[in-house]
Amino acid sequence: MTVMLLFLLTYELIGEAVHEWLGIGMFVLFIIHHILNRKWSRSVFKGTYTPLRIWQTVLVIGILLTMAGSMYGGVILSKHVLSFLPIKGGGAFAREIHMVSAYCGFVLMSLHLGIHWGMMMGMARCIVKELPIGGR
Fold first, then answer.
1. Would you tell me how many other CB atoms lie within 10 Å of the CB of residue 66?
2. How much is the pTM?
3. 4 in Cβ contact with 22 (< 8 Å)
């Protein structure tokens, strides 16, 4: 998701159609991410809230809101992937929502990734050890 987000931010370099397809891909990965982490979602209203857990929950809610804003704007602005939808007008507002959501989402997702950095590196180490050329 992080790599796809970086490519999404290069709109002028990749073009409008590729940007839209990557946006659809990001949405799919977002859904898969939440399916894989459904245990966390089920436990939101259970247990004690430490300062770290509060921070993580606020970040996740913020990311959810920015993803919703990006998706809303993307659907309204789409000229290629979703051009079959009968949506007319609202482009200027949708662009503002899309841009603000994208940049705020980038910051929030960076913080989210930073909180989980140790876990990500642990997973990367396990994957590298399993490679035929890795660590053995």
1. 21
2. 0.82
3. yes
Residue 84 phi, psi (nearest 5) = -75, -15
CB neighbours of 26 closer than 8 A, spacing ≥ 6? Answer: 1, 4, 5, 8
Give ∠ CA 78-89-62 in degrees, rounded to 5: 60
- Which tens digits make up the pLDDT trace of 124-135? 888 888 888 755
Within 13 Å, how many C-alpha atoms sit on residue 54's CB side? 4
Residue-wise pLDDT for 14-34, tens only, equals 999 999 999 999 999 999 998
Cα–Cα–Cα angle for 41, 63, 56, nearest 5°?
Answer: 55
Report, in angstroms and rounded to the nearest whole number, the Rg of the chain calculated over CA atoms: 18
